[in-house]
Amino acid sequence: MAKISRALVSVSDKTGLVEFVKGLKQMGVEIISTGGTARLLGDNGIQVTGISDYTGFPEILDGRVKTLHPKVYGGLLALRENAAHQKEIAQHGIQPIDMVVVNLYPFEKAISRPEVDLADAVENIDIGGPTMIRAAAKNYTHVAVVVNPGRYAPVLSALKDNDRDLPGQMHYEMAVEAFEHTAHYDRAIANYLARLENNTPFPKMLAMDFDIKQSLRYGENPQQSAAFYSERGVTEPCVAASEQVAGKELSFNNILDADAALNLVKEFDQPAVVCIKHSNPCGAAIASTIKEAYAKAYDGDPVSAFGCVIGMNRPLDVHVAEEILNRRAGDSAGFFVEAIIAPGFDPDAVKMITEGPPWGVNVRLLKVGCLDAHNLQEGALDIRRVTGGLLVQTRDIAGFDKASCKVVTKRRPTASEWDDMGFGWLVCKHVKSNAIIYAKDRMLVGCGAGQMSRVDSVIIANRKAGERSKGAVMSSDAFFPMPDGIETAASAGITAVIQPGGSKKDKEAIMAADAAGMAMVFTGVRHFRH
To answer: Annotated catalytic, 291?
Structure first.
Protein backbone atom coordinates (compact mmCIF):
# COMPACT_ATOMS: atom_id res chain seq x y z
CA MET A 1 0.00 0.00 0.00
CA ALA A 2 1.20 3.53 -0.81
CA LYS A 3 1.55 6.11 1.91
CA ILE A 4 -1.27 8.65 2.07
CA SER A 5 0.25 11.87 0.71
CA ARG A 6 -2.68 13.52 -1.04
CA ALA A 7 -6.42 13.43 -0.22
CA LEU A 8 -9.43 14.79 -2.08
CA VAL A 9 -12.18 15.88 0.34
CA SER A 10 -15.75 16.75 -0.75
CA VAL A 11 -18.65 15.93 1.56
CA SER A 12 -22.28 16.81 2.18
CA ASP A 13 -22.33 15.35 5.70
CA LYS A 14 -19.64 17.37 7.43
CA THR A 15 -19.90 15.61 10.80
CA GLY A 16 -16.43 15.33 12.35
CA LEU A 17 -14.75 16.51 9.16
CA VAL A 18 -12.73 19.43 10.55
CA GLU A 19 -11.06 17.30 13.22
CA PHE A 20 -10.36 14.55 10.70
CA VAL A 21 -8.73 16.85 8.14
CA LYS A 22 -6.72 18.62 10.84
CA GLY A 23 -5.35 15.20 11.76
CA LEU A 24 -4.42 14.52 8.15
CA LYS A 25 -2.71 17.89 7.81
CA GLN A 26 -0.67 17.31 10.96
CA MET A 27 0.75 14.22 9.27
CA GLY A 28 1.68 16.22 6.16
CA VAL A 29 -1.16 15.10 3.89
CA GLU A 30 -2.00 17.57 1.10
CA ILE A 31 -5.73 18.38 0.92
CA ILE A 32 -7.64 19.07 -2.29
CA SER A 33 -11.21 20.21 -1.74
CA THR A 34 -14.36 21.60 -3.39
CA GLY A 35 -17.02 24.24 -2.83
CA GLY A 36 -18.63 24.35 0.59
CA THR A 37 -16.24 21.76 2.00
CA ALA A 38 -13.23 23.91 1.06
CA ARG A 39 -14.88 26.97 2.62
CA LEU A 40 -15.57 25.14 5.87
CA LEU A 41 -12.00 23.90 6.11
CA GLY A 42 -10.61 27.33 5.25
CA ASP A 43 -12.82 28.98 7.87
CA ASN A 44 -11.25 26.61 10.41
CA GLY A 45 -7.71 27.57 9.46
CA ILE A 46 -6.96 24.53 7.32
CA GLN A 47 -5.06 25.26 4.11
CA VAL A 48 -6.45 23.40 1.10
CA THR A 49 -5.96 23.40 -2.66
CA GLY A 50 -9.19 24.28 -4.44
CA ILE A 51 -10.33 21.80 -7.06
CA SER A 52 -10.16 24.43 -9.84
CA ASP A 53 -6.60 25.32 -8.86
CA TYR A 54 -5.70 21.65 -8.97
CA THR A 55 -7.31 20.87 -12.33
CA GLY A 56 -6.69 24.25 -13.94
CA PHE A 57 -10.33 24.27 -15.01
CA PRO A 58 -13.15 26.25 -13.36
CA GLU A 59 -16.31 24.79 -11.84
CA ILE A 60 -19.06 25.20 -14.46
CA LEU A 61 -22.80 24.77 -14.88
CA ASP A 62 -23.67 26.05 -11.39
CA GLY A 63 -21.29 23.52 -9.85
CA ARG A 64 -22.66 20.53 -11.77
CA VAL A 65 -19.18 19.97 -13.16
CA LYS A 66 -16.35 20.28 -10.64
CA THR A 67 -14.37 17.09 -10.25
CA LEU A 68 -15.06 15.44 -13.62
CA HIS A 69 -11.54 15.96 -14.97
CA PRO A 70 -8.64 13.70 -16.09
CA LYS A 71 -6.37 15.14 -13.39
CA VAL A 72 -8.78 13.80 -10.80
CA TYR A 73 -9.56 10.42 -12.34
CA GLY A 74 -6.06 9.81 -13.66
CA GLY A 75 -4.79 10.45 -10.12
CA LEU A 76 -7.33 8.00 -8.71
CA LEU A 77 -7.23 5.19 -11.26
CA ALA A 78 -3.53 4.95 -12.14
CA LEU A 79 -2.05 1.67 -10.91
CA ARG A 80 0.98 2.42 -8.76
CA GLU A 81 2.89 -0.73 -9.76
CA ASN A 82 2.18 -0.22 -13.49
CA ALA A 83 5.18 1.61 -15.01
CA ALA A 84 3.23 2.58 -18.12
CA HIS A 85 0.46 4.17 -16.00
CA GLN A 86 3.01 6.10 -13.96
CA LYS A 87 4.80 7.32 -17.06
CA GLU A 88 1.53 8.39 -18.67
CA ILE A 89 0.23 10.42 -15.72
CA ALA A 90 3.63 12.07 -15.38
CA GLN A 91 3.49 13.13 -19.02
CA HIS A 92 0.18 14.87 -18.37
CA GLY A 93 1.20 16.47 -15.08
CA ILE A 94 -1.19 14.27 -13.08
CA GLN A 95 -0.34 13.56 -9.45
CA PRO A 96 -1.58 10.43 -7.62
CA ILE A 97 -4.48 10.93 -5.23
CA ASP A 98 -4.16 8.49 -2.35
CA MET A 99 -7.40 9.08 -0.45
CA VAL A 100 -10.93 10.18 -1.30
CA VAL A 101 -13.17 11.46 1.49
CA VAL A 102 -16.60 11.82 -0.09
CA ASN A 103 -20.25 11.41 0.84
CA LEU A 104 -23.15 12.36 -1.37
CA TYR A 105 -25.84 14.99 -1.81
CA PRO A 106 -28.64 14.19 0.68
CA PHE A 107 -31.10 12.86 -1.90
CA GLU A 108 -33.24 10.88 0.56
CA LYS A 109 -33.45 13.84 2.92
CA ALA A 110 -34.50 16.07 0.03
CA ILE A 111 -37.32 13.79 -1.15
CA SER A 112 -38.61 13.35 2.41
CA ARG A 113 -39.68 17.01 2.45
CA PRO A 114 -43.43 17.31 1.72
CA GLU A 115 -42.91 20.30 -0.57
CA VAL A 116 -40.22 18.72 -2.78
CA ASP A 117 -40.95 18.52 -6.50
CA LEU A 118 -39.24 16.55 -9.23
CA ALA A 119 -36.95 19.41 -10.24
CA ASP A 120 -35.72 19.81 -6.65
CA ALA A 121 -35.17 16.08 -6.36
CA VAL A 122 -33.16 15.96 -9.58
CA GLU A 123 -30.88 18.74 -8.39
CA ASN A 124 -30.01 16.56 -5.40
CA ILE A 125 -28.72 13.75 -7.62
CA ASP A 126 -24.96 13.70 -7.15
CA ILE A 127 -22.82 12.95 -10.20
CA GLY A 128 -19.20 13.72 -9.38
CA GLY A 129 -19.37 12.21 -5.90
CA PRO A 130 -20.42 8.66 -6.91
CA THR A 131 -17.94 8.74 -9.77
CA MET A 132 -15.05 9.62 -7.47
CA ILE A 133 -16.14 7.01 -4.94
CA ARG A 134 -16.35 4.28 -7.57
CA ALA A 135 -13.00 5.21 -9.10
CA ALA A 136 -11.26 5.16 -5.72
CA ALA A 137 -12.97 1.92 -4.69
CA LYS A 138 -12.00 0.25 -7.98
CA ASN A 139 -8.37 1.08 -7.25
CA TYR A 140 -8.71 0.20 -3.55
CA THR A 141 -5.33 -1.53 -3.35
CA HIS A 142 -3.74 1.90 -3.79
CA VAL A 143 -6.45 4.43 -2.89
CA ALA A 144 -8.31 4.70 0.42
CA VAL A 145 -11.96 5.70 0.08
CA VAL A 146 -13.82 7.03 3.13
CA VAL A 147 -17.59 7.53 2.81
CA ASN A 148 -18.59 7.06 6.45
CA PRO A 149 -17.74 9.70 9.10
CA GLY A 150 -17.66 6.84 11.60
CA ARG A 151 -14.41 5.75 9.93
CA TYR A 152 -12.54 9.01 10.62
CA ALA A 153 -11.14 8.11 14.03
CA PRO A 154 -10.00 4.57 13.12
CA VAL A 155 -8.39 5.86 9.90
CA LEU A 156 -6.45 8.58 11.73
CA SER A 157 -5.35 6.10 14.36
CA ALA A 158 -4.16 3.60 11.74
CA LEU A 159 -2.31 6.30 9.79
CA LYS A 160 -0.48 7.43 12.94
CA ASP A 161 0.43 3.87 13.88
CA ASN A 162 1.68 2.95 10.39
CA ASP A 163 3.54 6.10 9.25
CA ARG A 164 0.73 7.34 6.95
CA ASP A 165 -0.03 3.88 5.59
CA LEU A 166 -3.26 1.94 6.06
CA PRO A 167 -3.60 -1.85 6.42
CA GLY A 168 -4.74 -3.65 3.28
CA GLN A 169 -7.78 -5.06 5.08
CA MET A 170 -8.95 -1.54 5.95
CA HIS A 171 -8.59 -0.50 2.29
CA TYR A 172 -10.71 -3.50 1.29
CA GLU A 173 -13.41 -2.95 3.93
CA MET A 174 -13.78 0.71 3.00
CA ALA A 175 -14.03 -0.18 -0.70
CA VAL A 176 -16.89 -2.56 0.06
CA GLU A 177 -18.55 0.14 2.15
CA ALA A 178 -18.07 2.61 -0.72
CA PHE A 179 -19.81 0.41 -3.29
CA GLU A 180 -22.63 -0.23 -0.79
CA HIS A 181 -22.92 3.54 -0.34
CA THR A 182 -23.28 4.27 -4.07
CA ALA A 183 -25.57 1.27 -4.61
CA HIS A 184 -27.91 2.50 -1.86
CA TYR A 185 -27.85 5.98 -3.36
CA ASP A 186 -28.73 4.75 -6.85
CA ARG A 187 -31.51 2.52 -5.50
CA ALA A 188 -33.06 5.45 -3.66
CA ILE A 189 -33.09 7.53 -6.85
CA ALA A 190 -34.46 4.69 -8.99
CA ASN A 191 -37.22 3.87 -6.48
CA TYR A 192 -38.26 7.52 -6.21
CA LEU A 193 -38.44 8.05 -9.97
CA ALA A 194 -40.23 4.74 -10.53
CA ARG A 195 -42.89 5.60 -7.95
CA LEU A 196 -43.45 8.97 -9.62
CA GLU A 197 -43.73 7.33 -13.02
CA ASN A 198 -46.29 4.77 -11.90
CA ASN A 199 -48.04 6.90 -9.25
CA THR A 200 -47.91 3.89 -6.96
CA PRO A 201 -45.95 2.82 -3.87
CA PHE A 202 -44.86 -0.25 -5.85
CA PRO A 203 -41.94 0.38 -8.26
CA LYS A 204 -41.30 -1.90 -11.25
CA MET A 205 -38.20 -3.21 -9.52
CA LEU A 206 -38.18 -3.23 -5.74
CA ALA A 207 -34.75 -2.57 -4.24
CA MET A 208 -34.20 -2.05 -0.53
CA ASP A 209 -31.19 -1.68 1.74
CA PHE A 210 -30.71 -3.51 5.00
CA ASP A 211 -27.63 -3.46 7.23
CA ILE A 212 -26.76 -6.42 9.40
CA LYS A 213 -27.54 -5.58 12.99
CA GLN A 214 -26.45 -8.81 14.59
CA SER A 215 -25.86 -12.48 13.95
CA LEU A 216 -28.21 -14.77 15.86
CA ARG A 217 -27.41 -18.05 17.54
CA TYR A 218 -29.97 -19.76 15.31
CA GLY A 219 -33.29 -19.15 13.58
CA GLU A 220 -36.75 -20.30 14.57
CA ASN A 221 -35.17 -23.68 15.31
CA PRO A 222 -31.61 -24.71 16.25
CA GLN A 223 -30.95 -26.32 12.85
CA GLN A 224 -31.48 -22.95 11.11
CA SER A 225 -28.81 -20.22 10.97
CA ALA A 226 -30.03 -16.62 11.16
CA ALA A 227 -29.16 -12.93 11.29
CA PHE A 228 -31.07 -9.71 12.05
CA TYR A 229 -30.97 -6.82 9.57
CA SER A 230 -32.18 -3.26 10.03
CA GLU A 231 -33.65 -1.19 7.21
CA ARG A 232 -32.02 2.10 6.33
CA GLY A 233 -34.00 5.30 6.61
CA VAL A 234 -36.60 4.05 9.14
CA THR A 235 -37.67 6.75 11.59
CA GLU A 236 -40.51 4.92 13.34
CA PRO A 237 -39.76 3.44 16.78
CA CYS A 238 -39.15 -0.26 16.17
CA VAL A 239 -37.27 -3.34 17.35
CA ALA A 240 -34.63 -2.88 14.64
CA ALA A 241 -33.74 0.57 16.00
CA SER A 242 -34.10 -0.36 19.67
CA GLU A 243 -31.38 -0.18 22.28
CA GLN A 244 -30.87 -3.30 24.38
CA VAL A 245 -30.56 -2.11 27.98
CA ALA A 246 -30.01 -5.49 29.61
CA GLY A 247 -30.15 -9.25 29.17
CA LYS A 248 -28.61 -11.89 26.98
CA GLU A 249 -28.64 -11.62 23.20
CA LEU A 250 -31.95 -11.65 21.39
CA SER A 251 -33.15 -14.78 19.64
CA PHE A 252 -34.95 -14.96 16.31
CA ASN A 253 -38.26 -15.65 18.04
CA ASN A 254 -37.68 -12.92 20.66
CA ILE A 255 -37.43 -10.39 17.82
CA LEU A 256 -40.64 -11.60 16.19
CA ASP A 257 -42.54 -11.45 19.48
CA ALA A 258 -41.09 -8.07 20.48
CA ASP A 259 -42.13 -6.67 17.10
CA ALA A 260 -45.67 -8.01 17.58
CA ALA A 261 -45.83 -6.55 21.09
CA LEU A 262 -44.64 -3.12 20.05
CA ASN A 263 -46.94 -2.88 17.05
CA LEU A 264 -49.95 -3.71 19.21
CA VAL A 265 -49.28 -1.19 21.99
CA LYS A 266 -48.67 1.50 19.35
CA GLU A 267 -52.40 1.31 18.61
CA PHE A 268 -53.33 2.99 21.90
CA ASP A 269 -53.02 6.50 23.31
CA GLN A 270 -53.93 5.25 26.82
CA PRO A 271 -51.40 3.27 28.91
CA ALA A 272 -51.32 -0.18 27.31
CA VAL A 273 -49.55 -3.48 28.03
CA VAL A 274 -49.53 -6.75 26.09
CA CYS A 275 -48.14 -10.21 26.79
CA ILE A 276 -47.11 -11.94 23.55
CA LYS A 277 -46.60 -15.64 22.89
CA HIS A 278 -45.82 -16.92 19.39
CA SER A 279 -46.68 -13.50 17.94
CA ASN A 280 -50.18 -13.56 19.42
CA PRO A 281 -51.42 -11.66 22.50
CA CYS A 282 -52.29 -13.92 25.39
CA GLY A 283 -52.89 -10.81 27.50
CA ALA A 284 -53.64 -7.19 26.67
CA ALA A 285 -55.17 -4.27 28.51
CA ILE A 286 -55.44 -0.51 28.70
CA ALA A 287 -55.91 1.38 31.96
CA SER A 288 -55.35 4.71 33.65
CA THR A 289 -51.83 3.66 34.72
CA ILE A 290 -49.26 1.36 33.16
CA LYS A 291 -49.09 -0.64 36.40
CA GLU A 292 -52.81 -1.38 36.28
CA ALA A 293 -52.59 -2.18 32.58
CA TYR A 294 -49.86 -4.74 33.26
CA ALA A 295 -51.83 -6.40 36.06
CA LYS A 296 -54.87 -6.74 33.79
CA ALA A 297 -52.80 -7.98 30.85
CA TYR A 298 -51.12 -10.67 32.96
CA ASP A 299 -54.43 -11.76 34.43
CA GLY A 300 -55.82 -12.26 30.94
CA ASP A 301 -54.11 -15.65 30.70
CA PRO A 302 -51.49 -16.27 33.43
CA VAL A 303 -50.76 -19.79 32.19
CA SER A 304 -49.91 -18.67 28.67
CA ALA A 305 -47.99 -15.63 29.98
CA PHE A 306 -45.23 -17.97 31.17
CA GLY A 307 -42.17 -17.12 29.04
CA CYS A 308 -43.91 -14.23 27.27
CA VAL A 309 -42.58 -11.02 25.77
CA ILE A 310 -44.11 -7.96 27.44
CA GLY A 311 -44.73 -4.78 25.50
CA MET A 312 -45.86 -1.43 26.90
CA ASN A 313 -46.34 2.07 25.53
CA ARG A 314 -45.09 3.84 28.65
CA PRO A 315 -41.68 3.59 30.36
CA LEU A 316 -41.18 0.71 32.77
CA ASP A 317 -40.96 2.21 36.26
CA VAL A 318 -40.46 0.68 39.70
CA HIS A 319 -44.22 0.27 40.22
CA VAL A 320 -44.54 -1.90 37.10
CA ALA A 321 -41.36 -3.79 37.96
CA GLU A 322 -42.78 -4.50 41.39
CA GLU A 323 -46.03 -5.72 39.83
CA ILE A 324 -44.13 -8.07 37.50
CA LEU A 325 -42.16 -9.51 40.41
CA ASN A 326 -45.24 -9.82 42.64
CA ARG A 327 -47.14 -11.67 39.96
CA ARG A 328 -44.22 -14.04 39.58
CA ALA A 329 -44.07 -14.69 43.32
CA GLY A 330 -47.73 -15.56 43.47
CA ASP A 331 -47.52 -18.19 40.74
CA SER A 332 -46.77 -21.59 42.23
CA ALA A 333 -45.62 -22.89 38.85
CA GLY A 334 -43.02 -20.16 38.61
CA PHE A 335 -42.99 -17.33 36.09
CA PHE A 336 -40.41 -15.81 33.81
CA VAL A 337 -40.28 -13.22 31.07
CA GLU A 338 -38.23 -13.55 27.87
CA ALA A 339 -38.11 -9.84 27.02
CA ILE A 340 -39.69 -6.47 27.77
CA ILE A 341 -39.97 -3.76 25.13
CA ALA A 342 -40.89 -0.23 26.23
CA PRO A 343 -40.23 3.45 25.46
CA GLY A 344 -37.74 3.57 28.35
CA PHE A 345 -36.63 2.02 31.63
CA ASP A 346 -36.19 3.59 35.06
CA PRO A 347 -32.69 2.58 36.31
CA ASP A 348 -34.13 1.39 39.62
CA ALA A 349 -36.69 -0.71 37.75
CA VAL A 350 -33.93 -2.26 35.65
CA LYS A 351 -32.08 -3.19 38.84
CA MET A 352 -35.21 -4.71 40.37
CA ILE A 353 -35.94 -6.83 37.30
CA THR A 354 -32.40 -7.96 36.53
CA GLU A 355 -31.34 -8.66 40.12
CA GLY A 356 -34.63 -9.99 41.50
CA PRO A 357 -35.77 -13.31 40.05
CA PRO A 358 -33.40 -16.07 38.84
CA TRP A 359 -34.26 -15.31 35.21
CA GLY A 360 -33.73 -11.56 35.68
CA VAL A 361 -30.10 -11.50 34.59
CA ASN A 362 -31.13 -12.90 31.19
CA VAL A 363 -34.31 -10.93 30.47
CA ARG A 364 -33.88 -8.73 27.41
CA LEU A 365 -34.87 -5.10 27.97
CA LEU A 366 -35.41 -3.17 24.74
CA LYS A 367 -35.72 0.60 24.73
CA VAL A 368 -37.43 2.19 21.70
CA GLY A 369 -37.98 5.80 22.74
CA CYS A 370 -41.19 7.80 22.87
CA LEU A 371 -44.24 6.18 21.27
CA ASP A 372 -47.13 7.99 19.67
CA ALA A 373 -50.21 6.17 18.45
CA HIS A 374 -49.99 8.22 15.26
CA ASN A 375 -46.27 8.10 14.43
CA LEU A 376 -46.27 5.24 11.92
CA GLN A 377 -43.83 5.89 9.10
CA GLU A 378 -45.70 7.15 6.06
CA GLY A 379 -45.34 5.03 2.95
CA ALA A 380 -43.78 2.04 4.72
CA LEU A 381 -44.50 -1.30 3.09
CA ASP A 382 -45.28 -4.72 4.53
CA ILE A 383 -43.08 -7.31 2.81
CA ARG A 384 -43.26 -11.09 3.13
CA ARG A 385 -41.05 -13.67 1.51
CA VAL A 386 -42.39 -16.59 -0.51
CA THR A 387 -40.22 -19.07 -2.35
CA GLY A 388 -39.02 -17.30 -5.48
CA GLY A 389 -40.58 -13.95 -4.73
CA LEU A 390 -42.02 -11.33 -2.41
CA LEU A 391 -45.52 -10.29 -1.46
CA VAL A 392 -45.64 -6.53 -0.94
CA GLN A 393 -48.53 -4.51 0.43
CA THR A 394 -49.22 -1.26 2.18
CA ARG A 395 -49.46 -1.60 5.96
CA ASP A 396 -52.77 -2.18 7.68
CA ILE A 397 -53.00 1.07 9.62
CA ALA A 398 -56.79 1.19 9.87
CA GLY A 399 -57.80 1.87 13.47
CA PHE A 400 -61.16 1.91 15.17
CA ASP A 401 -63.63 4.47 13.85
CA LYS A 402 -66.88 4.31 15.81
CA ALA A 403 -68.54 6.80 13.47
CA SER A 404 -68.16 4.45 10.48
CA CYS A 405 -69.54 1.42 12.34
CA LYS A 406 -73.08 0.24 11.58
CA VAL A 407 -75.31 -1.24 14.28
CA VAL A 408 -77.18 -4.10 12.57
CA THR A 409 -79.13 -5.61 15.48
CA LYS A 410 -82.27 -4.49 17.24
CA ARG A 411 -80.31 -3.71 20.39
CA ARG A 412 -77.64 -1.01 20.31
CA PRO A 413 -74.41 -1.48 22.27
CA THR A 414 -74.14 0.16 25.66
CA ALA A 415 -71.42 2.72 26.35
CA SER A 416 -69.24 0.13 28.10
CA GLU A 417 -69.76 -2.34 25.26
CA TRP A 418 -68.62 0.31 22.77
CA ASP A 419 -65.47 0.86 24.86
CA ASP A 420 -64.71 -2.85 24.93
CA MET A 421 -65.47 -3.27 21.24
CA GLY A 422 -63.07 -0.45 20.34
CA PHE A 423 -60.35 -2.05 22.47
CA GLY A 424 -61.05 -5.58 21.24
CA TRP A 425 -61.14 -4.52 17.60
CA LEU A 426 -57.61 -3.08 17.80
CA VAL A 427 -56.29 -6.16 19.61
CA CYS A 428 -57.99 -8.52 17.16
CA LYS A 429 -56.14 -6.81 14.30
CA HIS A 430 -52.87 -8.23 15.70
CA VAL A 431 -54.04 -11.83 16.16
CA LYS A 432 -53.42 -14.59 13.61
CA SER A 433 -56.49 -15.46 11.54
CA ASN A 434 -59.01 -16.83 12.13
CA ALA A 435 -58.99 -14.43 15.07
CA ILE A 436 -61.54 -14.13 17.87
CA ILE A 437 -61.07 -11.82 20.87
CA TYR A 438 -63.16 -11.58 24.01
CA ALA A 439 -62.77 -8.28 25.85
CA LYS A 440 -64.23 -7.01 29.10
CA ASP A 441 -63.41 -3.83 30.99
CA ARG A 442 -60.84 -2.99 28.27
CA MET A 443 -58.96 -6.20 28.97
CA LEU A 444 -58.38 -9.33 26.89
CA VAL A 445 -60.13 -12.23 28.63
CA GLY A 446 -60.16 -14.83 25.85
CA CYS A 447 -58.33 -15.36 22.57
CA GLY A 448 -58.81 -17.88 19.79
CA ALA A 449 -56.05 -17.56 17.19
CA GLY A 450 -54.92 -19.18 13.96
CA GLN A 451 -57.68 -21.74 13.59
CA MET A 452 -58.89 -23.11 10.28
CA SER A 453 -62.52 -22.74 11.38
CA ARG A 454 -63.84 -19.52 12.90
CA VAL A 455 -66.17 -21.38 15.25
CA ASP A 456 -63.15 -23.29 16.61
CA SER A 457 -61.55 -19.93 17.46
CA VAL A 458 -64.75 -19.00 19.31
CA ILE A 459 -64.67 -22.29 21.22
CA ILE A 460 -61.05 -21.68 22.27
CA ALA A 461 -61.88 -18.12 23.34
CA ASN A 462 -64.76 -19.53 25.40
CA ARG A 463 -62.43 -21.96 27.15
CA LYS A 464 -59.80 -19.30 27.82
CA ALA A 465 -62.31 -16.80 29.17
CA GLY A 466 -64.38 -19.19 31.29
CA GLU A 467 -66.80 -17.30 33.52
CA ARG A 468 -65.31 -13.98 32.40
CA SER A 469 -67.07 -14.34 29.05
CA LYS A 470 -70.34 -13.38 30.74
CA GLY A 471 -70.90 -9.73 29.85
CA ALA A 472 -67.85 -9.59 27.53
CA VAL A 473 -67.81 -8.52 23.89
CA MET A 474 -66.48 -10.49 20.94
CA SER A 475 -64.30 -9.13 18.13
CA SER A 476 -63.77 -11.06 14.91
CA ASP A 477 -61.16 -10.15 12.28
CA ALA A 478 -63.47 -11.28 9.44
CA PHE A 479 -67.13 -12.09 8.88
CA PHE A 480 -68.92 -15.15 10.22
CA PRO A 481 -69.69 -17.53 7.32
CA MET A 482 -72.21 -19.33 9.52
CA PRO A 483 -74.29 -18.24 12.52
CA ASP A 484 -72.71 -20.98 14.67
CA GLY A 485 -69.93 -18.66 15.88
CA ILE A 486 -72.50 -16.14 17.12
CA GLU A 487 -74.58 -18.84 18.77
CA THR A 488 -71.53 -20.38 20.49
CA ALA A 489 -70.45 -16.98 21.82
CA ALA A 490 -73.99 -16.21 23.02
CA SER A 491 -74.12 -19.49 24.95
CA ALA A 492 -70.96 -18.39 26.82
CA GLY A 493 -72.54 -15.07 27.84
CA ILE A 494 -71.11 -12.69 25.19
CA THR A 495 -73.41 -9.67 24.95
CA ALA A 496 -72.06 -7.77 21.93
CA VAL A 497 -70.12 -8.49 18.73
CA ILE A 498 -67.98 -6.38 16.43
CA GLN A 499 -67.08 -7.81 13.03
CA PRO A 500 -66.54 -6.60 9.44
CA GLY A 501 -69.74 -8.06 7.96
CA GLY A 502 -69.93 -8.92 4.27
CA SER A 503 -70.91 -12.60 4.43
CA LYS A 504 -73.69 -14.05 2.28
CA LYS A 505 -75.16 -15.22 5.57
CA ASP A 506 -74.97 -11.90 7.43
CA LYS A 507 -78.75 -11.99 7.88
CA GLU A 508 -78.53 -15.34 9.66
CA ALA A 509 -75.78 -14.00 11.94
CA ILE A 510 -77.89 -10.93 12.73
CA MET A 511 -80.92 -13.11 13.46
CA ALA A 512 -78.83 -15.27 15.82
CA ALA A 513 -77.61 -12.15 17.63
CA ASP A 514 -81.13 -10.74 17.90
CA ALA A 515 -82.43 -14.07 19.22
CA ALA A 516 -79.81 -13.95 21.98
CA GLY A 517 -80.44 -10.27 22.78
CA MET A 518 -76.92 -9.37 21.62
CA ALA A 519 -75.82 -6.12 20.02
CA MET A 520 -73.81 -6.43 16.84
CA VAL A 521 -71.78 -3.89 14.88
CA PHE A 522 -70.34 -4.09 11.37
CA THR A 523 -67.12 -2.18 10.69
CA GLY A 524 -66.83 -2.80 6.94
CA VAL A 525 -63.09 -3.37 7.52
CA ARG A 526 -61.36 -6.74 7.58
CA HIS A 527 -58.12 -7.51 9.47
CA PHE A 528 -56.86 -10.86 8.18
CA ARG A 529 -53.40 -11.70 9.48
CA HIS A 530 -52.07 -14.85 7.86
So the answer is: no
Q: Give the mean model confidence (pLDDT) for residues 354-374.
A: 85
What strands, in cross-sheet order, belong to the sheet with 280-286? 243-246, 364-367, 337-342, 308-312, 272-277, 280-286
Which CATH number fits the domain that encloses residue 409? Answer: 3.40.140.20
Q: Is 14 part of the annotated catalytic residue set?
A: no
In a 3-state reduction of DSSP, which class is residue 142? coil
Verify that 72 and 136 share a domain, yes or no.
yes
Angle, to 10 degrees, between the axis of helix 70-77 and the axis of helix 128-138?
A: 30
pLDDT at 92 over 90: no
Sign of CA dihedral 246, 250, 255, 258: negative
Catalytic residue among 278, 319, 351, 505: 278
Q: What is the 3-state secondary structure (H, E, C) of 162-225?
A: CCCCCCHHHHHHHHHHHHHHHHHHHHHHHHHHHHHHHCCCCCCCCCCCEEEEEEECCCCCCCCC
Averaged pLDDT for residues 368-377 = 73
Residue 445 confidence class, pLDDT cut points 50, 70, 90 = very high
- The structural domain count of the chain equals 3
CATH number at residue 90: 3.40.50.1380
Among 138, 213, 319, 505, which one carries the catalytic annotation?
A: 138
The boundaries of the domain holding residue 356 are: 238-367
Which stretch of DSSP H or E encloses residue 100?
strand 99-102
